[in-house]
Design brief:
Largest sheet: 14 strands, antiparallel
CATH topology of the largest domain: Methylamine Dehydrogenase, Chain H
Shape: elongated
Radius of gyration: 30 Å
Low-confidence stretches: 6-26
Distance between the termini: 28 Å
CATH architecture of the largest domain: 7 Propeller
Number of strands: 59
Strand content: 35-45%
C-alpha cells in the first residue's frame, strides 16, 4: 500500500485518499485577527499612544505630519502634529479633528462610553490655551473640553480611565501645585484633583484598572511605593492608594549588577491582568506574564528575550509588541536566538505560549524598538510605534489588523522532485509552508495531470519551523511516466505548486549511490567531490544549500567509486549557507577515513557560519583518538553515544546519527552502535557543518583532526530507520 510519513510533533488528521474528498480543512484565521494589515494613514514619526473610541482611532506621538497609505515619506503630507484621528473602518484621516499641541503625546485613553479621550505628554498648550501635560477632547465634536484642565508639573506617560476617575502616571511631582509623586487621579468630568496619592520613587510607565474596579496596577522604573518595596510593579487600592498584596510580582526578577527589568505595559481584561517587561542587559527578563485579579497569583510567565512595549487582549488572544529575538526557552514556545526579530506576536491567554499570528514590522528611529502602543475597538488591533514598514512594505508609525476578510494566504508549495529507485515505487519529500495567520494547514499530494489526490496531511508550521512531509507511492506502474504536485489550503485559499518534472517509474533497483540517497529526501547533500581549488560545495539535495570550503583539500579518492572526497586540516571545514532553527528531528550521515591515533569532527550543527561553534556545536558525529565514533546531542547535558574503537584504520566507514522524539541513535557500518532517551536538543539557530570544530568540551573530543577524509555528507529532516541506514551502507 502507499506509505505516508508525518513527524510525530505534527498534527495528523485524515487518511490517505485516492480521489476521495479531503477532511475538513483548517480555518483561515487561527488567532482572532488576520495577519494582513488593513489600509490606514501613516505618520512621519513615532506613535506612542493609541485609543479607539466613537468610531475613530486616536494616535498620539512625536509625529508632525500624516500621509495616506502607500505614500513615501515626504509625499502627500498633511500637517498634523502630535495628535490625530483616523476613521476606525476606513483608516482615513479624520480631517475635522485637528488640535494644535506644542509638545509630543505619550498617552491616549478613552472613557468607557467613548464620549471622551484623554491625552498626556509633554505639551503645555492645546489650541493656544494652557493645558499642562494632560487634556480631554469630546469625540463627538473634536473640541477640547474647556473645564478639564489639571496642571501637571512634568511628563504624563500613561493614562487609565475607570468610571468617573482618570488615573495617570509619569515623571511628575506636582499636580495643581500639590505633591503627587508620579501617580495621581482626577475626576473624569471636571478634572478635579482627587486625594488618591500613592508615593512612587521612580517614573511610572503604565497604569491600568481591573475591569471590576477592584485594583489599579502600576508599572515602571521604581522600587518603592508608599515606602514599601515594590520592584517595578504594584497593585494598589483604587480608592485609597494603599499597596495591596500581589504575589505575582515575584515574576519580575530583582535588579542586579548586570540586569534591570521593568514593567512597561499593562492590560487588565476580565478576571486577569497581563504585563510586559523590558530589561537592560544581556539575558534580562523581557517577556510577558499574567496574574489573577482576585488572588494576585501568577498564572504564567513567558520569557521571550526582546523588550515588550505593548500588550492587548483581543478576542481571546494576548497580542504583544516587542523586539523579540529569542523565544525558544522556558516554555515560550517559539524561535531561537539568531532567527531574527519578531516585532508582533500573539500569545495564548491560558499559558502564554506563542500563537499562530506572524505579521511583522521593523524598527526605526529614534528608539529603534518597533511597536510602542496598542489599542482595540474590540475586533481590531491598532499598532503604533517607530517602525517604517509593516509586512515588508512601507507603512510608517501606524498600522492595523482586523478580523475581516479571508486572512493571509498560505505560501505556494515548492515544486516537487520525486525519485524512483525501486521497481514500482516513487519517493516524494517536501517541506511544509507558512501561512501568517494559520499555522495548521491541510496538504494534498496530487498525481498526474488529472490531479488525483493520493495523500492528505494536516500539519503545523511556523516561520521558524517548517517540517517536511514524506510519501511513498507504491501504486505506480514500472515504466510509466507521471508527475506530482502539492496543494495546500487554509480552508479559504487553496494554492497548488508547480508540476514536478515527468518521472519514469523504475523497473529495476538503481545502483547509483547518489540517487538512492536523494530518494530519501535529504535537506542537504554534499558529495564533496569538487575539483581541487573549488571554493563552493554543491548541494545535490535540490534544496540549494551550497556550502563554502575553508581549509579543505579536495580530490582525495572517495568512498564511492567515481567520486572524490574532501580532506580536513586542523581547522578545515565546510559550512552550508542556509541556517536552521533548532532542528528536533534529523539524521546526519557521512563516510569517514582517518589514520591511527587521529580523529576529529565529521559532521554536525553549530551556531557559527565562519568560526568555531560554542562548545563545538552539537547534533554531531565525531571520531575519538581511539578510533571510536561518537554521536553527540546537547539537551542541557552533552549526551554521547560511542561505538567500538579502531575505526581510524585508514579504511572508509559509514557513520549515521539520528534524533527524533527524544531518542538518539548511532550507526556505524550499517549496524546500530547505541541508542538512548534524551531531552530536547539545544535551542538555537545554526548551520550544518562538515569537518573541523572544537570538540574538546565533549567526551573523547579534541582528537587531532589533520588528514581526516570525509565523503557523501548528508542531513535529513527526519530520523532514519535501521533499514534505511543499512540500505545506504550496502549501496556502496
Amino acid at each position: 500500500m502507499n506509505k505516508r510519513w508525518l513527524f510525530a510533533r505534527l498534527v495528523l488528521v485524515g487518511v490517505l485518499l485516492a480521489g476521495a474528498l479531503a477532511p475538513t480543512p483548517a480555518q483561515s484565521i487561527s488567532a482572532s485577527l488576520s495577519a494582513e494589515h488593513s489600509p490606514v494613514w501613516q505618520t512621519n514619526g513615532s506613535v506612542q499612544g493609541l485609543a479607539v473610541a466613537a468610531g475613530k482611532a486616536y494616535a498620539g506621538g512625536r509625529f508632525t505630519s500624516v500621509r495616506p497609505p502607500g505614500s513615501p515619506l515626504g509625499t502627500n503630507e498633511v500637517g498634523q502634529a502630535y495628535l490625530a484621528a483616523f476613521d476606525a473602518t476606513t483608516g482615513d484621516l479624520v480631517a475635522a479633528f485637528n488640535p494644535v499641541l506644542n509638545g509630543q503625546v505619550y498617552a491616549v485613553a478613552a472613557s468607557a462610553d467613548g464620549s471622551r479621550i484623554y491625552v498626556g505628554g509633554d505639551f503645555t498648550q492645546v489650541n493656544g490655551v494652557t493645558r499642562n501635560r494632560i487634556a480631554a477632547f469630546d469625540t463627538a465634536t473634536g473640541q477640547l473640553v474647556s473645564n478639564f484642565k489639571p496642571s501637571v508639573s512634568y511628563r504624563v506617560k500613561t493614562i487609565a480611565v475607570s468610571g468617573n476617575t482618570v488615573y495617570f502616571g509619569g515623571s511628575f511631582g506636582l499636580v495643581n501645585g500639590l505633591e503627587r509623586l508620579r501617580l495621581a487621579a482626577v475626576s473624569a468630568d471636571l478634572g478635579t484633583l482627587l486625594p488618591w496619592a500613592p508615593a512612587v520613587n521612580g517614573d511610572v510607565y503604565a497604569v491600568d484598572v481591573a475591569d471590576d474596579g477592584s485594583k489599579l496596577y502600576a508599572g515602571g522604573q521604581f522600587s518603592t511605593v508608599n515606602g514599601t518595596n515594590q520592584n517595578t510593579v504594584s497593585s494598589l487600592d483604587p480608592a485609597t492608594g494603599a499597596v495591596l498584596p500581589f504575589p505575582a510580582a515575584s515574576a519580575v526578577p530583582p535588579p542586579n549588577g548586570s540586569c534591570t527589568t521593568r514593567v512597561k505595559t499593562i492590560d487588565a481584561s476580565g478576571d486577569k491582568v497581563y504585563f510586559g517587561n523590558g530589561g537592560d542587559g544581556g539575558g534580562c527578563f523581557d517577556g510577558t506574564w499574567a496574574a489573577d485579579v482576585a488572588t494576585g497569583a501568577l498564572i504564567w510567565k513567558n520569557q521571550c528575550l526582546g523588550a515588550t512595549e505593548a500588550v492587548k487582549v483581543v478576542n481571546g488572544w494576548l497580542y504583544k509588541g516587542s523586539h523579540a529575538h529569542d523565544c525558544a526557552y522556558n516554555g515560550a514556545g517559539g524561535f531561537p536566538q539568531g532567527f531574527g526579530y519578531r516585532f508582533l506576536l500573539t500569545e495564548s491567554l491560558t499559558d502564554g505560549t506563542i500563537g499562530p499570528w506572524f505579521p511583522n514590522t521593523n524598527a526605526g528611529p529614534p528608539t529603534e524598538v518597533g511597536p510602542l502602543a496598542f489599542a482595540t475597538g474590540g475586533s481590531d488591533l491598532w499598532v503604533g510605534g517607530d517602525f517604517t514598514t509593516s509586512n515588508g512594505v512601507g507603512q510608517q508609525g501606524l498600522t492595523r489588523f482586523t478580523n475581516a476578510g479571508p486572512g493571509a494566504a498560505p505560501a505556494k508549495p515548492a515544486k516537487l522532485t520525486p525519485y524512483s529507485v525501486r521497481p514500482g515505487q516513487v519517493e516524494i519529500h517536501f517541506p511544509t509552508v507558512v501561512d501568517n495567520d494559520d499555522s495548521t494547514l491541510t496538504y494534498r499530494l496530487l498525481k498526474g495531470f488529472t490531479n488525483t489526490t493520493i495523500a492528505t496531511w494536516t500539519a503545523t508550521s511556523t516561520p521558524w519551523d517548517k517540517p517536511w512531509l514524506h510519501y511513498t507511492d507504491t501504486a505506480a506502474t514500472p515504466g510509466e511516466v507521471t508527475n506530482y504536485r502539492v496543494e495546500v489550503t487554509d480552508g479559504t485559499t487553496t494554492l497548488r505548486g508547480n508540476y514536478s518534472d515527468p518521472i519514469t517509474v523504475a523497473s529495476t533497483t538503481s545502483t547509483a549511490y547518489d540517487e538512492l540517497l536523494k530518494a530519501d529526501g535529504p535537506q542537504a547533500y554534499w558529495r564533496l567531490g569538487e575539483a581541487a581549488g573549488t571554493t563552493t560545495s554543491a548541494d545535490s539535495s535540490g534544496q540549494s544549500n551550497n556550502g563554502t570550503y575553508n581549509g579543505i583539500t579536495l580530490g582525495t579518492p572517495g568512498a564511492i567509486a567515481g567520486n572524490t572526497a574532501a580532506t580536513t586540516s586542523s581547522t578545515g571545514r565546510m559550512v552550508g549557507e542556509k541556517a536552521y532553527s533548532m532542528p528536533q528531528q534529523f539524521t546526519v550521515e557521512a563516510w569517514v577515513k582517518q589514520s591511527f591515533l587521529r580523529g576529529g569532527r565529521i559532521i554536525g550543527f553549530g551556531n557559527s557560519k565562519t568560526g568555531n561553534s560554542a562548545d563545538g556545536g552539537d547534533r554531531m558525529l565525531y571520531m575519538r583518538s581511539s578510533g571510536a565514533i561518537s554521536f553527540g546531542v546537547n539537551d542541557g547535558t552533552r549526551r554521547v553515544l560511542t561505538s567500538a574503537s579502531n575505526k581510524n584504520d585508514n579504511q572508509w566507514h559509514h557513520v549515521v546519527g539520528t534524533y527524533a522524539d527524544g531518542t538518539m541513535s548511532l550507526y556505524v557500518d550499517g549496524v546500530l552502535a547505541g541508542t538512548q532517551s534524551v531531552g530536547t536538543a539545544a535551542l538555537y539557530y545554526g548551520w550544518w557543518r562538515v569537518g573541523y570544530d572544537n570538540t574538546s568540551n565533549w567526551s573523547g573530543g579534541g582528537a587531532t583532526q589533520t588528514g581526516m577524509a570525509i565523503d557523501e555528507a548528508a542531513v535529513y529532516p527526519y530520523a532514519f530507520t535501521a533499514v534505511q541506514v543499512k540500505a545506504h551502507y550496502d549501496a556502496r
